[in-house]
Every structure is written in C-alpha cells, then in structure tokens.
Amino acid sequence: MEQLGSISIGTSQSVACNLCGAREAQHLFTKKGYDLVRCTACELAYIANPPDAEGIAAIYTTAADYHDALLDPASEQFARQSEIADQHLRMMKIFRPQLSGLRVLDIGCSSGIFLAKARDAGMDAHGAELSPETANFARFHFDLPVHRGDWRDGDYADSSFDVVTLFDVIEHLPDPLSELQAIRRLLKPGGLLLQSTPDIDGLFPRASEPLAKRLDYWPHPEPPHHLFQFSETTLSAMVHKAGFAVEGARHTSMDLAYNFGTMESWKRSPKMLAYAALFAPVAIIGEWLGKGDWLYLAATPS
C-alpha cells in the first residue's frame, strides 16, 4: 500500500484519477472516513477510498433519507428545489434562448420538479432517475415520462435529444468520464449538454480549505454522495476528453443554509455559528465576483 502524503494516495482502495489516470495525489481533507485528494497532474479532486457499488446504490433511496422531502409538495425543501429549477431554466436559456419544442433528457431528475417546469416552457421533457421513490413521484404526481433506473436501460435512440441535463449529478458518479462519453451519443448535432456541480475553485471553498484540517470542519465536500469535486478547469477538461466542446460557463452560489446551517443548527453547534460568521460573507462576495461555489457548464458534441 502506498503511503499517504503530499504526492501519493494512501488508502487500501486507492483509485486512479478519472480524468488523467495518474495515481499521485495530495491529501486535502478526511470527512466521515473518506479521503478527499487532489490529483497532482490535472488537479481533479476526488474521494480516494469511495464506497463499493453496493454501498453507493444503498445511498439513493428514501430509506437512507435521500430526497425524501422532495416527495412532499408542502415541504420547504420542495419549494427550494422549485426555485433551483427556475434557475436551471434561466441558465439553459442563456445557451438556448428558444426552449419550446426542444426535446430534453434530465438524467438524475429526482422527483421531476425541473422537468415539470421544462414541460411548462414548451419542451418535450423526459427523465431518468435511479431512486425508485422519486422516479415514481415524477411519473405519477407530474405525469412525466421518467425511466426508473439507469438511463442506459431507457431505450433512448442515438441523436434523439436536443438537450441533456446533469444537474448536480456528475459529482455523484463513480466514473464520470465514461458517463459523459456514453451520453454524447444521445445528443443531436449541435445539441446541448448542460451540467451543474459544486465548484471547488469558488472563493469560499478556496478560502476555507487551508483551515479545514485545523478546524476539522469543511462543508464543501460531501462524501460519500459526492465522489468528485470539480472546478471549471477540471470539468471543462473532462467534457473535452469525452468528445464535447465547451460553449460557456456560469458561476453562482449555493444556498447559504446548505453550507452554513440555520439558527436552529447554530444553537446546537457554536462552532458552526462561528464558521458561518467567518465564511458566509466570503461566499456572498464570491458570487459578486463571479467566483461562487456552484458551477454551470454548457457543451456541445464536437
């Protein structure tokens, strides 16, 4: 076993970098027993000791509290996700101003909130979702054509979509490069691949990283759900390697409560309150400067 240090991965389940294949990496942070490292060759950040396939599959069910609140239209999380879906549509319109008539596949569509709004905007909306509970909700509550399971089993024809979306999905995938390479066949010539993902190169993650080990607290990485932490540079490189040309990127910020908690959580954890007081202003300034911690990347098959 390799020794964990500044230039090598040191876990019993060490994995090669998904982007460049290198095995040398710098340790960044350990959270919930998972080691986040940064490839020294291409700077992609990833979990060096990820769960196995069975462990990953177990995460994405409501039995594990995954998106269970999104099955309740009266919940606060449902309302928040509705606002995020509006943001997704605004971002899409930057790259495809006329949405009406476009056929879209939302991979990882969860409970279908975005797809319902896409349909209302005149799009021919389709989805694929691994979680059986949220897929069923999308199918029966919103009456959407959602494939329950891996999109590869959805019998989608080559060159059959104008738009494919991966909203906060790419960071969850065990093999994102292969996924992007496979998705390419779904898009028509000139079609749009639109992704969103947390941005490790945002001002808040960059400013807070040096203190992460000292404080033993860094909300940006979220293992075991998030297996990768992308930046515009690394996601652009991966998209290019998968056979796409980048059309553009936009930066925004995650909801402050996601990173910094709420008044209720601050009462339970004074450390979280102190952390919020220190870094929440940095997160706000980051968005003003175009260095928010949430990235949208648009690409088209090359």
Automatic annotation (TrEMBL):
<keyword id="KW-0489">Methyltransferase</keyword>
<keyword id="KW-0808">Transferase</keyword>
<protein>
    <submittedName>
        <fullName>Class I SAM-dependent methyltransferase</fullName>
    </submittedName>
</protein>
<dbReference type="InterPro" id="IPR029063">
    <property type="entry name" value="SAM-dependent_MTases_sf"/>
</dbReference>
<dbReference type="GO" id="GO:0032259">
    <property type="term" value="P:methylation"/>
</dbReference>
<dbReference type="Pfam" id="PF13489">
    <property type="entry name" value="Methyltransf_23"/>
</dbReference>
<dbReference type="GO" id="GO:0008168">
    <property type="term" value="F:methyltransferase activity"/>
</dbReference>
